[in-house]
């Protein structure tokens, strides 16, 4: 057929008023490949990964970060039954039904020596600073430092030449006044003079005698002697030095016996008695000696609220030196049936002291009053009885009403 006989059909026109024109066919979806899985498969894989992540987090939490309120078994039971609203497993250690492990002490009557611990100072029985009462130059010095001297022994002398001269002059005046008084008495007997003239001569004699006595006392002050038996200290001057009243020359101390001053709390004031034994520990040598109370101050110190007490010790072998620091234990008596518990069992509170006791397997709070205490035990004067069980360990973990498990 020739190309001339071929005709082209005119394009078909659609009436868009009634029927819409056909549109192009939508492009077909791309075929799935291994790199791009189907949509349904991709959603299922995402949920699987999320579930694995959440499950891993829950496992790590239960394994490494267990709940503080769940026990070893109780936590697992709670996790298993919590999702369905069921009950968790029985609580383990630390759970609601757990028992707190504690150690206890059973109260018993014991023998107690009432002692008061304090600190004290050693003092010489007698101690004085040797000084001169008059001014002058030292003419002789008989002081051997650190040596013992007897009462009345001459220690040093002061130049008193002027006093001796005045003393001699006064002796001459007394002789003159005595002769005048005798003559005046004779004249008065013959009524040649009045009584007034005689009394004037008599007064001159008596005044001169008083001046002589005063000069003799002054002369005695130039010779300084030991006032009591003791040991001399270090001297502070030499022969030829000029001294005045108040100048310290040396010291004199009686160190056998020695005194020990210490204070006790005012609540023990009524228990202290003269003659009570005192155990003294020297800080330097740590040697323990026994002294006795021999004087008690009648008044309590209003500042420290303590009672000053003084003990005495023979100190024959010079165990203690004046000025030393000592530890003192004052024995106030002995109690045959005292109740004592370990120190760590007592809990101080605002209102006083309390302890935890065990009753029917549960902890209970018991207020107590304390007495004598040491670093290991405390006396209980009120609140406990023989046979009571007191918690001594685990106090920080236990509270009233908790069930406890007594450990050995």
Key terms:
six-stranded antiparallel barrel, elongated, four-stranded antiparallel sheet, 408 residues, alpha+beta
Q: What's the helix and strand layout?
A:
Layout: H1 39-64, H2 74-82, E1 100-106, E2 109-131, E3 136-141, E4 148-149, E5 154-158, H3 161-189, H4 195-221, E6 223-225, E7 230-232, E8 242-243, E9 248-265, E10 277-282, E11 288-296, E12 306-313, E13 325-342, E14 347-349, E15 352-359, E16 362-373, E17 377-382, E18 389-393, E19 404-406
Parallel strand pairs: 1-19
Antiparallel strand pairs: 1-18, 2-9, 2-13, 3-5, 3-8, 4-7, 5-6, 7-9, 9-12, 10-11, 10-13, 11-12, 13-17, 14-15, 15-16, 16-17
Helix pairs in contact: 3-4
Care to give the gist of this entry?
This protein has helices at residues 39-64, 74-82, 161-189, 195-221, and strands at 100-106, 109-131, 136-141, 148-149, 154-158, 223-225, 230-232, 242-243, 248-265, 277-282, 288-296, 306-313, 325-342, 347-349, 352-359, 362-373, 377-382, 389-393, 404-406.
């Amino acid at each position: 057929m020739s190309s001339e006989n071929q005709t082209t059909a005119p394009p078909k026109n659609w009436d868009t008023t009634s029927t819409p024109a056909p549109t192009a066919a939508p492009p077909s979806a791309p075929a799935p490949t291994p790199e791009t899985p189907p949509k349904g498969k991709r959603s299922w894989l995402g949920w699987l990964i999320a579930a694995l992540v959440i499950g891993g987090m829950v496992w790590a939490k239960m394994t490494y970060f267990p709940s503080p309120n769940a026990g070893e078994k109780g936590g697992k039971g709670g996790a298993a039954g919590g999702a369905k609203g069921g009950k968790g497993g029985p609580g383990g250690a630390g759970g609601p039904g757990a028992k707190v492990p504690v150690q206890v002490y059973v109260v018993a009557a014991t023998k107690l020596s009432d002692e008061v611990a304090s600190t004290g100072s050693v003092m010489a029985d007698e101690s004085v600073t040797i000084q001169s009462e008059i001014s002058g130059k030292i003419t002789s010095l008989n002081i051997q430092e650190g040596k013992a001297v007897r009462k009345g022994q001459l220690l040093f002398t002061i130049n008193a030449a002027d006093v001796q001269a005045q003393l001699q002059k006064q002796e001459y005046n007394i002789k003159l006044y005595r002769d005048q008084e005798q003559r005046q008495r004779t004249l008065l007997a013959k009524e040649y003079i009045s009584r007034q003239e005689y009394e004037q001569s008599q007064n001159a004699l008596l005044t001169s005698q008083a001046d002589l006595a005063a000069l003799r006392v002054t002369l005695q002050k130039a010779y300084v002697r030991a006032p009591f038996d003791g040991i001399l200290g270090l001297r502070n001057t030499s022969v030829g030095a000029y001294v005045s009243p108040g100048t310290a020359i040396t010291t004199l101390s009686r160190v056998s016996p020695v005194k020990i001053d210490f204070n006790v709390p005012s609540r023990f004031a009524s228990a202290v008695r003269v003659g009570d034994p005192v155990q003294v520990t020297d800080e330097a040598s740590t040697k323990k000696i026994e002294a006795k109370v021999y004087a008690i101050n009648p008044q309590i110190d209003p500042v420290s609220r303590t009672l000053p007490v003084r003990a005495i010790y023979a100190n024959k072998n010079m165990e203690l030196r004046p000025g030393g620091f000592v530890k003192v234990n004052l024995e106030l008596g002995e109690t045959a049936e005292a109740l004592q518990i370990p120190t760590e069992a007592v809990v101080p509170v605002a209102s006083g002291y309390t302890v935890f006791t065990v009753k029917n397997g549960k902890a209970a709070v018991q207020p107590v009053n304390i007495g004598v205490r040491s670093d290991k035990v405390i006396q209980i004067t009120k609140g406990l009885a023989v046979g009571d069980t007191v918690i001594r360990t685990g106090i920080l973990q236990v509270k009233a009403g908790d069930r406890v498990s007594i450990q050995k």
